[in-house]
Design a protein that fits this description.
This protein is α/β, with parallel strands linked by helices. The chain folds into two domains: 111 residues, Rossmann fold; 180 residues, Dihydrodipicolinate Reductase, domain 2 (2-Layer Sandwich). The protein contains eleven helices and 13 strands. Strands 12-11-7-10-9-8-13 form a seven-stranded mixed beta sheet. The radius of gyration is 20 Å and the shape is globular. GO terms for molecular function: inositol 2-dehydrogenase (NAD+) activity; nucleotide binding.
């Protein structure tokens, strides 16, 4: 199988290395808006670089991985589908909700697989939590708690195009809640704060946020996010049931120190999402190769990405208007 990869930034370069090591992949062809960067990464990995992203579509590919900047996602996905190329696209599929809905309308009914990069679905802890819910060993679930805490904020120039904390960051938690519980979110109440750098408020964003989700069976989910967690990168999901409870992401590198006696982290905390989810990133690409080859069902279709985005959109509206928002209010 010959797979093209558009975009060789942080995630893209990692994807290229993963693809190169997969036995089913005979050739990896890289391209980037910066051809020099593409050649540099290609030379390092011993793979081929195309002259430009445009050249990927005449390279005889069997599938395409999109890890380019968000603004390029929709056009690349649309073109890949039109060329009958299975495509893996990092989230989001498009720059905003309307663009996502439009893209999905354009590719609907084509039969070409489009897998979205929501890597927590491939994290062993989240998978185990999902299995615990499905097995009934937890009893009925009454509460889910999920957090994403960054050790340091992103650059100021990233914020205006990020979509905001809920759409950019917490959307992973929203998808994880749906994935683990198997339930849908029906209502969101959200709030946010700015106590860090001024550039968050200047961009209309927040540096800390929280969302209370009501699921369709009455389960309550609490999602929190922050850009300032100097203790380290922290992603956890707890599922609390009537019989038992489980947590994903709690290990000897979790950057949480007991206030009194208790177990303390034995190793250094994860520095960021690429390290914390290294295994999950590799697993989702292995899954994509199977999907592209027609040997497996799509584990993360665009519809799941859209549902998580609806939750993020509702959270933004709730924060702005200081009220609960039903998902149906934002659904297109």
């Amino acid at each position: 199988m010959r797979i093209g990869l558009a975009g060789v930034g942080r995630i893209g370069a990692g994807h290229a290395e993963t693809l190169r090591g997969l036995g089913a992949v005979e050739e990896v062809v890289l391209a980037d808006a910066d051809p020099v960067r593409a050649r540099r990464v290609a030379d390092k990995l011993g793979v081929r670089a195309a002259g430009a992203v445009e050249d990927l579509f005449t390279a005889g590919l069997d599938a395409l991985v999109v890890a380019a900047p968000t603004a390029a996602h929709a056009a690349l996905v649309t073109r890949a589908v039109a060329a009958d190329l299975p495509v893996f696209c990092e989230k989001p599929l498009a720059a905003d909700l309307d663009g996502t809905v439009q893209l999905m309308a354009e590719i609907a009914g084509t039969g070409v697989p489009v897998q979205v990069g929501l890597q927590r679905r491939f994290d062993p802890g989240h998978i185990a939590a999902r299995e615990a819910v499905r097995s009934g060993s937890l009893g009925w679930v009454h509460t889910v708690r999920s957090c994403t805490l960054d050790p340091a904020p992103p650059p100021a120039e990233y914020l205006p195009t990020s979509g905001g904390l809920f759409r950019d960051c917490s959307v992973h938690d929203f998808d994880a809640v749906r994935f683990v519980t198997g339930r849908e979110v029906v209502r969101v109440t959200a709030t946010g704060a700015n106590r860090g750098d001024a550039f968050f408020a200047e961009a209309g964003d927040i540096d800390t946020g929280a969302a209370l989700l009501t699921l369709d069976d009455g389960t309550i989910a609490l999602v929190s996010a922050a850009r300032y967690n100097a203790a380290g990168y922290d992603v956890r999901l707890e599922v609390l049931g009537s019989k038992d409870s489980v947590v994903a992401g709690l290990d000897d590198r979790t950057p949480v120190t007991p206030a009194g006696p208790g177990l303390r982290p034995a190793g250094p905390p994860h520095t960021g999402f690429l390290e914390r989810f290294a295994e999950a990133y590799a697993a989702e690409l292995r899954a994509f190769v199977e999907v592209a080859a027609g040997r497996a069902d799509n584990p993360c279709p665009p519809g799941d990405c859209l549902e998580a985005l609806y939750v993020a959109e509702a959270a933004e509206v709730s924060r702005a208007e200081n009220r609960p928002v039903d998902i149906e209010e934002v659904r297109r």
